[in-house]
Write a structure and sequence with these properties.
One of its GO terms (molecular function) is voltage-gated potassium channel activity. By secondary structure, this protein is mainly alpha-helical. The protein is built from 18 helices and 4 strands.
């Protein structure tokens, strides 16, 4: 056989031992048409079968037919190696266990890296969907321009200005939300007659920010080429959560206001109290607007991507912390509950002490007084140091890796978008230079 320009000679007895492989079927087949279908070419004069395949991998296949053992080289690509083995019909089970374990680890690692690379590239680049925009019946080109304006900040100066304005409105909204909770700002009007009340100003700022966020969300919703993908996007869900609480609050306040106008306040005291609790929750949900900065922050998106990829490690960490809290709180309660004036009156009361100690914060508001209780406290703190130190390095290394890759993909996408925008300008400039050069050449004078 001739594989990739390299000739090999194999005995018939070596091939018939593996009749399900390609060369085994070639050796045992009696039909000439069947033999020709198993190879790429055949030379009748030399009785040589030609295969246009990788000779490096076939060298391992050749050694397998001779020795009965399939070896794996570390320098080979796992995907290409499996593809070549599938072509020759040789199964991976013929490899030694040590080689197979190392190969499967490299294959799984490569698959994981390729998956992460695809997800990072999808996060760095806004969805193109050129064919979806072309197939749109209603204002396809206009919606495409609007989509580029909202999703690609470096596609034009206007798109970049919208991105900067969105970040500024997020910061203004968060600052207004924080100032609205300051007691001095709430009672500023009562301090003097000339002092203006800041609450109406903050409310107007709040409404202005919500109006901008609502318009931004509606424009993205109207211009998206794929509505299903838009609704499942995490960033778009954050945008919806940022504007939804205020509208729900206004709706609930209007309902309670109508009940009071109709004189039904006495009969609905319980429902109004529940509505007040819901309103407090709605006001608390406004703080999630800070997550809108993730749309314009590479670090926040890399951090969220790290948590999604490391959810198993984070889950194990939470499980170990929970087990430690339950174990050490029960141990300290068993030795401290008989001490007069102790704060460890029950195991649930000891959870706070165990959580503070295992996180190595140590507020000092609750502490054991017996020697055995202090020994348990030392063991709890030591367990927390060991437990918190293990996953931090893993998370930090992965975050640094994902952040650098995401930054590189974003830089590539930005360069591509800028190249598309400036291509026509460069072409016009080059054409103008060519025309100017041709016009400046002197024309021959007639004698």
């Amino acid at each position: 056989v001739n594989v990739g320009g390299h000739s090999y000679r194999l005995d018939y007895c070596e091939l018939v031992g593996y009749p399900k492989t390609r060369l085994g079927r070639l050796a045992t087949s009696t039909s000439r048409s069947r033999q020709l279908s198993l190879c790429d070419d055949y030379e009748a004069e030399t009785d040589e079968y030609f295969f246009d395949r990788d000779p490096a991998v076939f060298q391992l296949v050749y050694n397998f037919y001779v020795s009965g053992v399939l070896l794996v080289l570390d320098g080979l690509c796992p995907r290409c190696f499996l593809e070549e083995l599938g072509y020759w019909g040789v199964r991976l089970k013929y490899t030694p266990r040590c080689c197979r374990i190392c190969f499967e680890e490299r294959r799984d690692e490569l698959s994981e890296q390729l998956k992460i690379q695809r997800e990072l590239r999808a996060q760095a680049q806004a969805e193109e969907a050129e064919e979806l925009f072309r197939d749109m019946r209603f204002y396809g080109p206009q919606r495409r321009r609007l989509w580029n304006l909202m999703e690609k900040p470096f596609s034009s100066v206007a798109a970049k200005a919208i991105g900067v304005a969105s970040s500024l409105f997020v910061l203004i909204s968060v600052v207004a939300l924080a100032l609205n909770t300051v007691e001095e700002a709430q009672h500023h009007a009562e301090e003097g007659a000339d002092s203006p009340d800041l609450r109406p100003i903050l409310e107007h700022v709040e409404m202005l920010c919500i109006g901008f966020f609502t318009l931004e969300y509606l424009l993205r919703l109207a211009s998206t080429p794929d509505l299903r993908r838009f609704t499942r996007s995490a960033l778009n869900l954050v945008d919806l959560v940022a504007i939804l609480p205020l509208y729900l609050q206004l709706l609930l306040e209007s309902i309670t206001g109508e009940d009071q106008q109709h004189g039904q306040t006495a009969g609905r005291v319980g429902s109004v109290g529940k509505v007040g609790q819901v309103l407090r929750i709605m006001r608390l949900m406004r703080i999630f607007r800070i997550l809108k900065l993730a749309r314009h922050s590479t670090g926040l998106r890399a951090f969220g991507f790290t948590l999604r990829q490391c959810y198993q490690q984070v889950g194990c960490l939470m499980l170990f912390i929970t087990m430690g809290i339950f174990a050490f709180s029960a141990a300290v309660y068993s030795v401290e509950h008989d001490v007069p004036g102790t704060n460890f009156t029950s195991i649930p009361h000891a959870w706070w002490w165990a959580a503070v100690s295992i996180s190595t914060v140590g507020y000092g508001d609750v502490y054991p007084e017996t020697h055995l209780g202090r020994l348990f406290a030392f063991l709890c703190i030591a367990f927390g140091i060991i437990l918190n130190g293990m996953p931090i390095s893993i998370l930090y290394n992965k975050f640094s890796d994902y952040y650098s890759k995401l930054k590189a993909y974003e830089y590539t996408a930005i360069r591509r978008e800028r190249g598309k925008v400036n291509f026509m300008q460069r072409a016009r400039k080059k054409m103008a230079e060519c025309l100017a050069g041709s016009n400046s050449q002197p024309t021959p004078q007639q004698e």
